[in-house]
Amino acid sequence: MTAGLSPFKCSMSDVDLVALAKHGDRQAFKQLYLTHHQWVYGLALRLCGQTTLAEDITQECFILVWQKLPQFRGESQFSTWLHRICVNQALGSMRKQQSFWARFIPMDKQAEPYCSDTEYQGIDKLLVRLPERARIVFVLYAIEGYPHEEIAHLLGIALGTSKTQYHRAKQLLQEML
């Protein structure tokens, strides 16, 4: 490589960037972040329905990725590993937020998260209007391709509840259209 040329000028694969980042190369990690942060934010936004929470989840996700990168064994693609971390981080953050607000606002008085329709486009504009659990199940099943068994496990709900919430979301989306 020619002196003075950054290796990041050419497009490096995730495998190469992960290998460098595992050894503390912050530029390699920055490139991984730049490559994947919009996708992580989009997933977080679809799951939580709030832009500020999605931003926090994205930031927390990449902090966690930096911390856990040495544990990444490369048995799957980096994006698959990152996806799992993002989903788990989003669900955990949403639980923490619910738990926090539940101390101050009785459950029957809690409103759906505030969001401005101008912040969303297409299906995301409709997804954000779904009740939280129905939205999460719909995103995980219809958009992200998770099976209902795994969704039920992730959310700590019965398999039938996952399927019911998915069908509820589909019905609500059809009514919105």
Mean pLDDT: 82
Catalogue the unreliable spans.
1-10, 103-120
DSSP strand content: under 5%
Give the total of beta strands: 0
Helical content band: 55-70%
- In terms of quaternary structure, what is this? single chain
Terminal-residue CA separation: 55 Å
Q: In short, what is this structure?
A:
This protein is mainly alpha-helical and 177 residues long. The protein contains 8 helices and no strands. Mean pLDDT is 82; it is low at 1-10 and 103-120.
Describe this structure in words.
The protein has 177 residues and is mainly alpha-helical. It is 67% helix and 0% strand. Helix 2 runs antiparallel to helix 3 (51-68), helix 2 (26-48) crosses helix 4 (78-102) and helix 2 packs across helix 6 (132-143). The relative contact order is 0.10. The model is unreliable at 1-10 and 103-120 (pLDDT under 50).
